[in-house]
Amino acid sequence: MMLRPSIDTLLDRIPSKYSLCVLQAKRAHELEFGAKPTQEFKAVKSTLRALEEINSGNVAIHPDPEAKRAAVLAKAEADRLAQEEEERKIKEQIAKEKEEEGEKI
Predict the structure, then answer these.
(1) Which of 25, 66, 69, 99 is 20–30 Å from 76 (CA)?
(2) How far apart are CA 21 and CA 94, in angstroms?
(3) What pTM did the predictor assign?
(4) Burial class (CB in 10 A: 0-12, 13-18, 19+), 38
(5) pLDDT in tens, 12-46
(6) Where are the transmembrane segments (predicted)?
């Protein structure tokens, strides 16, 4: 059985076998846990799907991993703050409705 895409074509895109292995594993985990695919796949397994994405150029190693980590953390913090703001608005609305209900009685 021959691997498609071949290791030689993948190594044209990623400079190291080790980097390729790590990138494939990370992307396969992302796909398994529900990440949005970047293309249609021929393969069924997530590991081979990850290789197809790497081969097509849709997935690559980030040139500045520290900046990527900082961006991910900043996005998570922004999402958390947005969630807290949404919960605060809901609590205010509930309190307002209870207050209006008390006035009607």
Answers:
(1) 25
(2) 51
(3) 0.60
(4) middle
(5) 888 899 999 999 999 999 999 988 888 888 878 88
(6) none
